[in-house]
Amino acid sequence: MSATIEDIFRKTAGAPSGGPLYMRLRRSIEDAVKSGLINPGDALPSERDIAATAEISRVTVRKAVQHLVADGILIQRHGSGTFVAPTVQRVEQSLSSLTSFTEDMARRGMTLSSQWLDRGLYDPSNEETVILGLGAGEKVARIARLRVADGNPLAIERASLAASVLPDPDAVENSLYAKLDQTGNRPVRAIQRIAAVNLGKNDAELLDVAPGAASLRIERTSYLASGRIVEFTRSIYRGDAYDFVAELRLQT
């Protein structure tokens, strides 16, 4: 344990009474992160070492750490330990224009990459059949990927399209909309539904945040000029990295 980090926990032991011990430890760690004494990516000592240095119980340490993980200040990696969460640049996304994730990130000069989770042709679910208006025996194209900008995982996208619109999901590279544009199937309007949700274990692991962390779930139903639904996408965005902005005008 470095002298700087050790001093942080010693201050907790010597601090005057000011609320529960776990809250005092929580404030000490949070203040150290905000002041730059410990930096994003730095590992914290083990629960046992913190308890010994701060002269408190391991249960108290665990409770303080759990609160800091829930606040997004710390992250825990199974088998590796507890770390100061990396700093993620917040992205402001307008709700007034129909753009793709690739276009949004490129416009900001951010380096984009994707981790494919799934893509292929499948028998549709009842929901996909109804929403996409699929005929008997028609397949559905599904693509699912983790979207990463400047090395930070920001979103998980899971899209469904009629196989007649996207017969070869493997042909999609960075931008789904660019691929649809090539065949004249790029949507011209969409309806989005946004809800605040807490992340489950699997999605949290992909987004490198704690299970239960806040996120935004976006359901997008996209239409061609003819009125046909061309795409149904469910996306999960990190709550600590995304702001959705809408401009409102007074009706006259």
UniProtKB/TrEMBL annotation:
Keywords: DNA-binding, Transcription, Transcription regulation. The keyword Secreted does not apply. It comes from the Bacteria. One of its GO terms (biological process) is negative regulation of DNA-templated transcription. Residues 19-87 form the HTH gntR-type domain. Pfam families: GntR (PF00392), UTRA (PF07702). The keyword DNA-binding applies. GO terms for molecular function: DNA binding; DNA-binding transcription factor activity. This is Putative transcriptional regulator of N-acetylglucosamine utilization, GntR family. It comes from Pelagibacterium halotolerans (strain DSM 22347 / JCM 15775 / CGMCC 1.7692 / B2). The lineage of its organism: Bacteria, Pseudomonadati, Pseudomonadota, Alphaproteobacteria, Hyphomicrobiales.
